[in-house]
Amino acid sequence: MSYQLFLGYTFEGTTDKTFLKSIIERTISNILCLYSNKDVEIVLIPFKKDGEGFVEQSINSIRKGYIDNSTDIFYIHSDSDDSTNSTVIKYKFEPLYKEVSEIDEIKGCNIIPIIPVYMTESWLLADFDLLKKEISTNKTKAQLNLTGNPEEFTDPKLKIIEALRTTNSELPKKRRKDLNISDLYQIIGQKIEINKLMSLASFKEFYINTFEVLKQLNLIDYHINV
Question: Which of 31, 60, 75, 136 is the most buried (most CB within 10 A)?
Answer without folding.
Answer: 75
